[in-house]
Design brief:
By secondary structure, the protein is mainly alpha-helical. 94% of the residues lie in helices and 0% in strands. It contains 1 helix and no strands.
Length: 31
């Protein structure tokens, strides 16, 4: 259960990082 929880948290963090790059980085790079 602990390993599953840690993996779940890592998945959320990675997803948030990609979402942050999409919302902040892509627009500045594209423009």
């Amino acid at each position: 259960m602990v390993a599953f929880f840690i993996g779940y948290e890592i998945t959320i963090i990675v997803a948030n990082l990609f979402a942050y790059e999409d919302s902040m980085g892509v627009d500045t790079v594209a423009n």
